[in-house]
Structure formats: structure tokens, C-alpha cells
Design goal:
799 residues; alpha+beta; PH-domain like; Annexin V, domain 1; 4 domains; seven-stranded antiparallel beta sheet; three-stranded antiparallel beta sheet; zinc-finger; GTPase activation; Arf-GAP with coiled-coil, ANK repeat and PH domain-containing protein; zinc; metal-binding
Length: 799
């Protein structure tokens, strides 16, 4: 402890000691003033914070009320409710922060001022008093006459007692000063550090809260962009309609009222009429009449239940009334009563009389006719592009994706901490995560982990199948292979965030627990993969069919060539036009071709048997590496081996210089699996990387006739204008192979790109028809690949 005032110096009571005491007393006085001011400012801050929280609560209450008022709009209601909950959590965090400020600043510093500074002041009073007494004793001792011995003795005794008392008090005072100077440091720093930790906790909790809310905000942001575009379009349409209606002639508007028995709402006709009351005064009242369900009814207000005038129109008649004073009157007569009504004009009267007559005639018809009519309307409205007439399966979202992914063994708990019922996933690793671990994964960067919500985000079928191919159990066998051997503890639910974060970084960034294979183990693995390309045959029902071998054995049937060419030409023609209407035509034409292609005979046997690409054959490499393992695992469609190779440090765009500079993505194309391609693309594979022949993955997929892969690559930004060393683009290859599906996809993608460039910011995502068609092909490739297996692979020597 640093001594502010020296104990030896205080016994001398020297001027130096007095000057030090004076300086310390001034410093303590100023300290007390500053601490009092800080405490008052803290009290003001806390009061202002409470007022802020109170106003914030009222604001959140207003958001909740707005959400309840918008209950009919599910997007607004759910979003505002979620936002209100999050803001309420922030209010709770603010309350905790202000409570901590009150404890750490106000209470703690007030205690220091009241207790320690009070003791110092009391000690100062004693010191000042004894100093004065000592000064008086010294003066009295000096003034005692030499010849008065009793006065000398009395003065000497008083001085001795006073010095002794001064010695005790000054030592206590100096001790109090030194202790105070030391304690002020710890008390001030302790209170401020506690206050700063409260802020740290506050902002950390807020970050976690809004990290969880961020996917919903991103989703709403995307929807909002589309809503702005739609609103602008609707505004233009409404302005145009407004202008058109303004220019119309409303002088003959009475003729607009027509009888429609097939109206969707069941109301054949409706409008205002005057009705004569049946009371003694025969008053006339304007009411809203309608003919519905073979009844004539009227309402005074919209919320009122309709009053039935005629129960069954089959039992009544309608006639003109010319014998009363009012004009345009007609009467509906039933066996029990009659109802006199008045229209606004002669045309309206004739329209209503005709409507009642038609309703009477319709009421006598067999009700079965109406049922058949409804059946016909239903059948035409529920048709789809699928040949089976079933509604098409769309991208999964919410509970569907969650149930499918959590059904995989090991996925029911968080991959990293074991928290049950996870709601997040890393799509490039293929694992499920809890909310805390997902936030840590997101902080690693997308080059390590891409986080997506299992309940808030939309899941494309190939991505969902990727999740089902891997899973927590498979990935942990790779990334935690040496965990027990190294004695590392796996986090548990509820562990501090910094411990979980350190473990996740060690697991995925440093890959500390991955078991490195020996050269012999790697060689055995690579050779095994090169010879077992069908190791996933037990789970490959969803994969697109593999391309035929380089020298296929063609079946006879030369008479079918004309039909095949006709089908291809039809697809090409349907995709040639660049207008939006022709896009829809192309979609329906391809669906029709899907239905007919199942019975299409094979190509003639006279075609040459040349291979479109170099045959995939395993040669003993100069060196075995994780990149080579990834290369052959991609061809063998083994996602666990691919994940293992990436964990061992394989470059996802590794180039096999001994095999025409092919990449794992190109080998995945030859393996015929969309899921394998999706896994590589999610792990940053370059969709436009070319081999030695100048061909990228899109070239190879087109040559092999893998429609699903072509669709996937186009969605991921593949360059369809790239030409190989033979000046062949994917489109020219597809045209030569007469593959109408791929030609359609390539031309639609080109037209959509042109539309997007032309429309600019007004339509950043392109044409909706294009998106629907690509979604149809994606689902077909993932769920019903046999429909796309209609064409032979590309043959460059084919005439």
C-alpha cells in the first residue's frame, strides 16, 4: 500500500507534515464534492432511464395493439408480435442495467462517502482539537517563570500529557488518511467496473437477441422489396384504371346491372330498391336487395342479417305495377304475401323483373346440374403442370423442413453442445444447431459455416436432401474423432458462451480434433472410392440417373428418330420467344413433353458410339492428397467422404492436372448426383472453373444430359455463354443433342437475364414465370428424376 503521509514525519509535526496534511484535506474535500456530484448524476440518469423505459413500454404496447388490429394480415401480425416481444426483452435488459447502475454507482459510492469520509472528518476534528491543545501547552510551558517551580512543573506535566495525546491522535489520523487514499482507489474502480460489466452484459444480451431476430428481418427485407415493386405496379394499374373509368360515359350506367346465375359468391343479382312497407302508412324505404340461393332478400346495413322476402322463388310470380302513383314499380307475389318494390329507372325495373323470372326458371332445374358445374370449375382450377394432376410440391418451409431434418439420427440435439430440439442448421456442414451455437457459427464467417433457420427460411429440395445425407452423427465422427483422445470436454447446454465459442473454433476453424490419415490410409481410401462409385446406391433413389457409359449398347428402333427430333424441335421452338407470354407457353409445352416422353422409343442404333467426354478411369497418381480424395468421392457420390476430405484440408476447387484439369465439381457432374454438386457449391466450389478442354460443369452436365444439374448450375450463376476449345457453348451442345429440356432451360435463363438487365431495380429477381419453371425442374430432378431421363448424352460426331 502506498503511504500518502509518513508516520515518522507526523511525530515531528514539521511544516512539511502540516503542508501534506493541508494538501490531503483539500483533496479529500474535492473528492467528496466530485463523488456527491457523480451520485446525483447517477440518480438523474436512473430516473431518466426509468422514464425512458416507461415510454418504451407504451410504445411496445402500441405495437401490440397495431398487431392485433392487423390480425387479418398474417405477415404484419406475426412480424409485429415478434418485434414487440424483442423490444420488450430490450426493456427488461435496460431495467437490469439501471438496477445495476443503482447498486454499483449510487449505493456503493454513497456508502463510501457516508462511512469512510465521515470517519476521516471525525478524525480531522480530533486532530485539529489536539493540535490546538498542544500549541496552547507549548505556549504555557514557554511562559512559565523560572522562579515559580510549581508553575513550571504544572506546565511541564500538561505539555507531556498533551504531546502523548497528540502522538496517539496524529498517528490515528495519518492511518485514516492512508487507508482512505488506498480505499478510494478500490471503491471507485470497483463501482465503475461493475457498472461497465453491466453494460457489457446488456449489449451482449441485445446482440444475441437481435442475432436470433436477424433471419426474420432479412426475410421481411426481401419480401419488402417485392412489396414495394408490387405496390408501384398496383399503383400504376389503379391510376390507369382510374383514368379509364373517368373517361367512361355513366349516363347509361343502369344497364350495367345484369343477372348472373354463375356468380362466385352465389348472388345472382343485387342492388338498391325502394320497398313499400306493409304497415298502415305504406311507407317506402330504400334497401339493398339481392337474389341468392333461390331467395329474394334485403338488408338495411351490411352487418345486418338478410331479411327474406320470398322463401322459394319457384312459388312466386313477378309483374309490372302501373296502377300506383310511383313510377318504375313492380311486384313479387307469393302464395302468402306480396312485395311492392320500386327501381330507380325503367331499365333497372326491366333488369330486376328479368332477373326474378330467370331465378324462378333456374330454381326448377335439377340441383345436380349445379353440382356438375361446380365439379367442372374445380377440375379446371386445380390443374397443374405435373402429368399426374397432383399439386406440385414446393420448397419446404417451417415444420416440414424441420421434421425431415430432425428425423436424421443424431439431429435431434445440437451438434456442438447437445441442446435438444435445435431450430438452426449449418447448410455447408450438414448439421443442426441451437440458437447459441448458431450465433457462434455465424460469427465464424460463411467460409466456415453458413447458418439457416429450419423454421423461418425456405428450403429447396436439393439442399434438404443434402442435410439428410449428412447429419450430426456423420460430421461429429469426422470433426470429433480425436476429442476423447485429447481429453477435450464437449460443451453441455447452459455452459458459458465463451467456453462453447472456444470449443467450436477449435473444432471447425483449427480442426484440432480431426484425425489425419496416414499416406497408406489415404491411398486405400482413394483407390476404394475410385472403384466404388455406387457406394451410396442404398440411398440414391433421389439422385438423377447416371449418364450412359461411353460406349452404350443402343437398342433397335430407328423408326422413332422422327418423333424424338420432333419433341426436341418443339421444346426448342417453345423456348425461342423472349416475351413473357411465350415463357408461360414454354412451361406448359415442356410439361406436355414430360408426359409424352415416357413412351418415346430410343434413338436409332445407327448413331455413332463416340464418347462426349473423356472416360473416367482411375490411374495411379503421383501423389495422394485430400484433394484427390475429394475428387474421387465426388464421383462416387459419397458425401461423408467428401466432408472428411474437406476437414483434412482439401481445396474444394482442387485441379487434377493428370486428368485434363478436372475439378471435384466436374466429377460430381459425371457421378450424376445433384446433392453432391449442391454440397460442393455450398462449400464455395467455382461453378465456372474450366478443365483443359475449356469446359465447365455446365458443359459437362449438358453433354451428359443431366437436366437437374443444368438447372442447378444456372441458378448458381453458371456462364452459359462460355465456349470450349471447339467453340461449343452449352446451348449449341444441347441443340445438337436435341435435348429440348436443357435448350429450354438455357434459353429461359438467357431471356430472364435480359429482362432483369432491362428492368433494372424494378425487378431484380427476373421474371416470375422463369422462376416457376426452374422450380418445377428442380423439384422434378429431386423427386421424380425419371421424367428427365429422356435423352441420350451428347455425341459430337452425330450428324
Amino acid at each position: 500500500m502506498k503511504i500518502t503521509v509518513d508516520f515518522e514525519e507526523c511525530l515531528k509535526d514539521s511544516p512539511r507534515f502540516r503542508a501534506t496534511i493541508e494538501e490531503v484535506e483539500g483533496d479529500v474535500c474535492e473528492l467528496e464534492s466530485k463523488l456527491d456530484k457523480l451520485v446525483k448524476l447517477c440518480i438523474g440518469m436512473i430516473d431518466a432511464g426509468k422514464a425512458y423505459n416507461s415510454a418504451n413500454k407504451q410504445f411496445v404496447s402500441g405495437i401490440r395493439e397495431l398487431a392485433q388490429q392487423s390480425a387479418k394480415d398474417e405477415v404484419i401480425e406475426s412480424s409485429l408480435t415478434k418485434f414487440a416481444e424483442s423490444l420488450q426483452e430490450m426493456i427488461n435488459y435496460h431495467t437490469i442495467l439501471f438496477d445495476q447502475a443503482q447498486r454499483s454507482i449510487k449505493t456503493q459510492l454513497q456508502t463510501f462517502v457516508k462511512d469512510d469520509l465521515r470517519k476521516f472528518k471525525e478524525a480531522k476534528k480530533h486532530f485539529d482539537k489536539v493540535s490546538e491543545e498542544k500549541e496552547a501547552a507549548l505556549i504555557k510551558n514557554a511562559q512559565a517563570p523560572r522562579n515559580k517551580q510549581h508553575e513550571v512543573e504544572e506546565a511541564t506535566n500538561i505539555l507531556t500529557a498533551t504531546r502523548k495525546c497528540f502522538r496517539h491522535i496524529v498517528l490515528d489520523y495519518v492511518l485514516q488518511i492512508n487507508v482512505l487514499q488506498s480505499k478510494r482507489r478500490s471503491e471507485i474502480l470497483k463501482s465503475m467496473l461493475s457498472f461497465m460489466y453491466a453494460h457489457l452484459t446488456f449489449f451482449h444480451q441485445g446482440y444475441d437477441l437481435f442475432s436470433e431476430l436477424q433471419p426474420l428481418m432479412k426475410q421481411l427485407g426481401g419480401q419488402l422489396d417485392q412489396l414495394v415493386v408490387d405496390a408501384a405496379k398496383e399503383k400504376r394499374d389503379m391510376e390507369q384504371k382510374h383514368s379509364t373509368i373517368q373517361q367512361k360515359d355513366f349516363s347509361n350506367d343502369d344497364t350495367k346491372l345484369e343477372y348472373n346465375v354463375d356468380a362466385d359468391n352465389g348472388i345472382a343479382m343485387e342492388g338498391y330498391l325502394f320497398k313499400r312497407a306493409s304497415n298502415a302508412f305504406k311507407t317506402w324505404n330504400r334497401r339493398w336487395f339481392s337474389i341468392q340461393n333461390n331467395q329474394l332478400v334485403y338488408q338495411k346495413k351490411f352487418k345486418d342479417n338478410p331479411t327474406v322476402v320470398v322463401e322459394d322463388l319457384r312459388l312466386c310470380t313477378v309483374k309490372h305495377c302501373e296502377d300506383i302513383e310511383r313510377r318504375f314499380c313492380f311486384e313479387v307475389v307469393s302464395p302468402t304475401k306480396s312485395c311492392m318494390m320500386q327501381a330507380d329507372s325503367e331499365k333497372l325495373r326491366q333488369a330486376w323483373i328479368k332477373a326474378v323470372q330467370n331465378s324462378i326458371a333456374t330454381a326448377f332445374r335439377d340441383k345436380g346440374d349445379n353440382c356438375e358445374k361446380l365439379d367442372r370449375k374445380s377440375s379446371t382450377s386445380t390443374g397443374s403442370l405435373d402429368s399426374g394432376g397432383e399439386p406440385k410440391e414446393r420448397s419446404l418451409k417451417g415444420e416440414s423442413a424441420l421434421q425431415k431434418v430432425l428425423a436424421i439420427p443424431g439431429n435431434g440435439c445440437c451438434c456442438d453442445c447437445g441442446q435438444p430440439d435445435p431450430r438452426w442448421a449449418s447448410i455447408n456442414l450438414g448439421i443442426t444447431l441451437c440458437i447459441q451455437c448458431s450465433g457462434i457459427h455465424r460469427s465464424l464467417g460463411v467460409h466456415f459455416s453458413k447458418v439457416r433457420s429450419l423454421t423461418l427460411d425456405t428450403w429447396e429440395p436439393e439442399l434438404l436432401k443434402l442435410m439428410c445425407e449428412l447429419g450430426n452423427k456423420v460430421i461429429n465422427q469426422i470433426y470429433e474423432a480425436r476429442r476423447e483422445e485429447l481429453g477435450a470436454r464437449k460443451p453441455q447446454p447452459g455452459d458459458p458462451r465463451h467456453e462453447v465459442e472456444a470449443y467450436i473454433k477449435a473444432k471447425y476453424v483449427d480442426r484440432r480434433f480431426v484425425r489425419r490419415p496416414s499416406d497408406e490410409e489415404l491411398r486405400t481410401k482413394v483407390v476404394s472410392l475410385s472403384k466404388q462409385e455406387k457406394r451410396l446406391s442404398s440411398s440414391s433413389d433421389h439422385l438423377p440417373p447416371k449418364a450412359p457409359p461411353p460406349t452404350p449398347k443402343l437398342r433397335p428402333g430407328s423408326h422413332a428418330s422422327g418423333q424424338s427430333e420432333k419433341s426436341a424441335d418443339s421444346g426448342i421452338q417453345n423456348s425461342a420467344d423472349g416475351s413473357r407470354e411465350r415463357l408461360a407457353t414454354a412451361a406448359s409445352s415442356n410439361s406436355l413433353a414430360d408426359a409424352e416422353a415416357a413412351e418415346a422409343p430410343p434413338l436409332p442404333a445407327t448413331l455413332p458410339a463416340a464418347s462426349p467426354c473423356k472416360e473416367v478411369v482411375f490411374f495411379e497418381p503421383k501423389e495422394y492428397s485430400p484433394g484427390l480424395q475429394l475428387y474421387w468421392a465426388s464421383f462416387a457420390r459419397s458425401l461423408p467422404d467428401m466432408a472428411e476430405a474437406l476437414a483434412h484440408g482439401a481445396e474444394v476447387n482442387w485441379v487434377n492436372t493428370e486428368e485434363d484439369k478436372r475439378t471435384p465439381l466436374i466429377m460430381a457432374v459425371h457421378g450424376g448426383s445433384m446433392v453432391t454438386c449442391e454440397f460442393l457449391l455450398q462449400n464455395a466450389a467455382n461453378v465456372n472453373q474450366l478443365d483443359a478442354q475449356g469446359r465447365g460443369p455446365l458443359h459437362h452436365a449438358t453433354m451428359l444430359g443431366h437436366t437437374g444439374q443444368v438447372c442447378l448450375f444456372l441458378k448458381r450463376g453458371a456462364n452459359q455463354n462460355a465456349a470450349d476449345i471447339d467453340e461449343k457453348t452449352p446451348l449449341s451442345i444441347a441443340v445438337d443433342a436435341a435435348n429440348a429440356d436443357i435448350v429450354t432451360l438455357l434459353r429461359l435463363a438467357k431471356m430472364n437475364e435480359e429482362m432483369r438487365e432491362a428492368e433494372g431495380p424494378y425487378n431484380p429477381s427476373g421474371d416470375e414465370t422463369y422462376q416457376d419453371i426452374f422450380q418445377d425442374f428442380t423439384h422434378m430432378a429431386s423427386n421424380d428424376p425419371d421424367k428427365l431421363n429422356r435423352y441420350q448424352q451428347y455425341d459430337p460426331q452425330r450428324p
